[in-house]
Amino acid sequence: MHTLKKKTDILVAGAGIAGCAAAQELQDKEADYLLVEKNAEPGGLTRSISIGEAHFDYTGHYLHLAKFKSPAELPYAKQNNQDWRLIKRRSSVYMDGKLVPSPLQYNLYYVPGTKRERCITGFRNRPKIEKPSSFKEYLLSGFGHDICECFLLPYNEKIMACSLDKLSIDSVTRFFPAPDPEMIEKGYAREGANNDTGYNASFWYPARQGIGLLASGLASGLNSIQTCCPIEKIDISSKKVYTPLGEILYNRMLISLPLKRLCELTGDPYLLGLASALRHTRVFCLNLLVRCPAPECLGDSQWIYIPDKEMPFYRIGIYSHISSEMNPRDVSALYVETSVPDDQPLPVMTVLLDEIFLHLDRLGWVKREDCITISANWIGFAYVLFDHHRNINVNKIMDILKSHDIYPIGRYGLWDYISMEDTIISGIETARKFI
Ligand SMILES: Cc1cc2nc3c(=O)[nH]c(=O)nc-3n(C[C@H](O)[C@H](O)[C@H](O)COP(=O)(O)OP(=O)(O)OC[C@H]3O[C@@H](n4cnc5c(N)ncnc54)[C@H](O)[C@@H]3O)c2cc1C
């Protein structure tokens, strides 16, 4: 589209999978809409990237379906199941030089040294806390001191970039199911990795390309989309947004920009005050194409959790162990993720890279000189923190926005911790209410 539409009934802001799904629903029902996106292409975090012969995702993304049976059933995604594979999870935790199958709490048999005994004893003597008041208490009362100390606390504190006693029990959604004592005992007593539990025991991934396949399906066929159009200001009273391409008047807005950012764009002092208390992490994702196959010490793990606080990354993923066709066969493709709190300055990129490569080299996982492609992405809003203010502030913000006909959608609009499937659903269901 070359001339900016100056007026629309429904403005859809942000063309990630939430915005694209919402726009598809509006187009299907013949509503007057305009979808605007700051980047040159839609897809948001669910894009894939090609650099020369290297193919990566923006960061590792796996499709976990709970409500739909297969990618082909996802509304408006235009997917064919033959283009996807249903894959069993093979993830691990790095501990004292070994890979322990994940979930660690159900695979204690593999925990190295004396930690194995300590973990089960700690579990059997776990403190009874009737109503845990924080994520930390929930973990301690569910799994006991030693499983927490070895893995659950340091790992989750690394990914959330904060102490877990600052996070409320609402952090514990379906992504952290309640412990199963019988399985913990079984996993301690017997060999044989127990990989079948948790929300992500299996997942879908494209057979030959990256997760961007899903985003392209959702974006295809949209006939009212304006890319390279960042919203720079929102006037909630006169229902107008300002972009470098011009102003756009709207009656109602569906918006997937991060809620905190949305409040900042309004300039409204009350919204700004509420939004200032919203906390989140930022993630640095380093994508690497390496000239040799992944080293044997990584086993066949698809991703590895790194609880050790000395190491500057919380997870590494091995694309080549998920899809052998995404990149040439004689090379390997990996990603490394580092979390940074929102209230600290961003680390200097060269320093962070040196530190990451130092540790990857020490571990024997990747040598910098073997990398054919090194590509870095900063994700400004990665994990929303469910601290003790989150619910009150989000509810107040939502009420005000609703009274101005603004309806947030998607993982960051809703300021939530939701999957791609739920993100797509949030876009479609909110759009449906408009029609
Ligand atoms: C590290 C990490 C790993 C993840 N792994 C998984 C996984 O394995 N499986 C899974 O199901 N989910 C995963 N997720 C979650 C998944 O990324 C989200 O659910 C999904 O991408 C959210 O889509 P969205 O459309 O809501 O937001 P986004 O993808 O963030 O889309 C928002 C869009 O708004 C645009 N935008 C921003 N500002 C402006 C502006 N001012 N003007 C116009 N446009 C703007 C952006 O460019 C973007 O296109 C992961 C998330 C992270 C951070």
Structure write-up:
- The two termini are 24 Å apart.
- The strands form four sheets. Strands 1, 2, 9, 10, 11, 12 and 18 form a seven-stranded mixed sheet that branches. Strands 7-6-14-15-16-13-17 form a seven-stranded mixed sheet.
- It is an alpha/beta fold and 435 residues long.
- Helix 1 (17-28) runs parallel beside helix 12, helix 3 (135-143) packs antiparallel against helix 4 (145-160) and helix 7 packs antiparallel against helix 8.
- The longest helix is centred in the middle third of the chain and has 16 residues, at 145-160.
- Strand 3 (48-51) and strand 4 form a beta hairpin.
- The chain is globular and about 65 Å long.
- It has helices at residues 17-28, 115-124, 135-143, 145-160, 181-189, 212-219, 259-266, 269-276, 349-363, 390-403, 410-413, 420-434, and strands at 7-13, 33-36, 48-51, 54-57, 84-88, 91-95, 98-101, 202-206, 225-226, 233-235, 240-243, 246-255, 281-290, 303-305, 315-318, 332-341, 371-379, 406-408.
- The mean pLDDT is 95.
- The chain binds flavin-adenine dinucleotide.
- The site of flavin-adenine dinucleotide (FAD) has 33 residues, from helix 1, helix 11 and helix 12.
